[in-house]
């Protein structure tokens, strides 16, 4: 009994040594138990990686070591990965697929087999199977959705993959948003993004519509950006200022108001546009991107509140691709006699902005603009 207990204790110690060092220090683990398959498998995979990095052939003894480990560890996925890569190098895609599937079956959460399988499926034109692997990877890889989105986006360039992609997106909205967002950063992909996603449906957390509009604005494709924005906002054709009564908080920017709440002040929708300017910092409080045709316009507005310090608030109109205002006027003056300005030719989009301007003697301003009325001027 004492001998049996001693043998059992030795076996426990050897198992513990192998478990501790098999992956980090496989050579030490192999010393503790030379015939144990786990360190032999790790050593074999390391030798393959070194040979690959040095562009050298893998020694036959390395494959023999992995094959021996596979016999002792039939549930380990790594030997099947190695066999799959060997088959790929030899041009045997059927055997490679079979080997990667076997690795996947042995460890459903293993990342490498699914990557290899996805690549094989896509190369073979089987987008549906490839995307199925990608969908699983997106859930098991750290930051999987964001890291795999460009991979999915690349395959969306092939029109034949669209039905499979749409089916995948219906089952995985997070992957849809990340993939379309990756595509939307390039305005040249606008039509592709619109073909794959429904711009009128905006599930919680979806941001690809905003990113697409922003990239088109940056590319100065203002008309297309406004058209897509109108679909997301559920709005018909808009001429002039959108939401002049400051009641629509659902339509997104930049063609709706961007209202500020910061150390500069507070702008909010409350019986019109309610503005509190703290008077200590310069900065924007309300901004909207417009698409006015060239010509003269007059803007009027009723103003209530602290008119005495109304000159601390200033309206400005600036071409979207410029930093120099076309026209500028104090809020109090605009409310008293109206603001007339001219949009020059070549100014395709304009930024209308209400800003706070600080002074040596800061004064807090609290005013409300009930509505804005913009009219083109003839002659």
Question: What does it look like?
Answer:
This protein has 379 residues and is α+β, with helices and mostly antiparallel strands. Among the domains are: 135-237, no CATH class; 258-377, Jelly Rolls (Sandwich), CATH 2.60.120. The chain has helices spanning 2-21, 26-32, 37-53, 60-72, 78-90, 93-106, 111-123, 127-140, 144-155, 162-171, 173-184, 190-196, 208-218, 222-233, 331-337, and strands at 258-259, 265-269, 273-277, 283-290, 295-300, 303-305, 313-319, 325-330, 339-343, 350-356, 365-369, 373-377. The chain has a 5-stranded antiparallel β-sheet with strand order 1-4-10-7-8. The protein has a 4-stranded antiparallel β-sheet with strand order 2-3-11-6, with no helix packed on it. A 3-stranded antiparallel β-sheet has the order 9-5-12. Helix 6 packs antiparallel against helix 7. It starts with a helix and ends with a strand. Mean pLDDT is 79; it is low at 1-34.
């Amino acid at each position: 009994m004492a001998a049996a207990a001693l043998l059992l204790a030795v076996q426990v110690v050897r198992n513990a040594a192998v478990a501790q060092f098999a992956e980090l220090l496989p050579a030490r683990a192999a010393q503790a138990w030379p015939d144990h398959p786990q360190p032999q498998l790790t050593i074999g995979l390391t030798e393959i990686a070194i040979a690959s990095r040095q562009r050298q052939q893998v020694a036959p003894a390395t494959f023999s070591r992995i094959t021996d480990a596979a016999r002792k560890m039939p549930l380990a996925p790594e030997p099947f990965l190695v066999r799959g890569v060997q088959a790929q190098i030899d041009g045997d895609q059927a055997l490679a697929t079979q080997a990667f599937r076997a690795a996947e079956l042995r460890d459903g959460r293993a990342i490498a087999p699914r990557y290899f399988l996805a690549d094989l499926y896509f190369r073979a034109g089987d987008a549906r199977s490839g995307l199925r692997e990608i969908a699983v990877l997106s859930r098991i890889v750290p930051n999987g959705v964001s890291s795999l989105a460009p991979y999915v986006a690349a395959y969306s360039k092939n029109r034949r993959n669209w039905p499979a992609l749409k089916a995948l997106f219906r089952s995985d909205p997070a992957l849809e948003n990340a993939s379309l967002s990756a595509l939307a950063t390039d305005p040249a992909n606008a039509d592709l993004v619109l073909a794959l996603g429904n711009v009128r449906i905006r599930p919680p957390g979806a941001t690809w519509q905003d990113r697409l509009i922003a990239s088109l604005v940056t590319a100065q494709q203002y008309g297309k950006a406004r058209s897509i924005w109108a679909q997301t906002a559920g709005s018909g054709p808009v001429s002039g200022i959108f939401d002049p009564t400051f009641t629509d908080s659902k339509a997104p920017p930049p063609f709706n108001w961007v209202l500020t709440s910061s150390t500069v002040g507070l702008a909010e929708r409350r019986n019109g546009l309610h503005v509190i300017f703290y008077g200590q910092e310069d900065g924007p409080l309300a901004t909207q991107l417009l698409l006015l045709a060239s010509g003269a316009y007059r803007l009027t507005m009723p103003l209530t509140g602290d008119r005495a310090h109304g000159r601390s608030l200033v309206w400005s109109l600036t071409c979207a691709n410029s930093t120099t205002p076309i026209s500028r006027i104090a809020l109090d003056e605009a409310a008293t006699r109206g603001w007339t300005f001219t949009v020059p030719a070549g100014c395709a989009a304009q930024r209308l902005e209400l800003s706070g301007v600080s002074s040596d003697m800061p004064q807090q301003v609290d005013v409300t603009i009930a509505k804005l009325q913009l009219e083109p001027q003839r002659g």
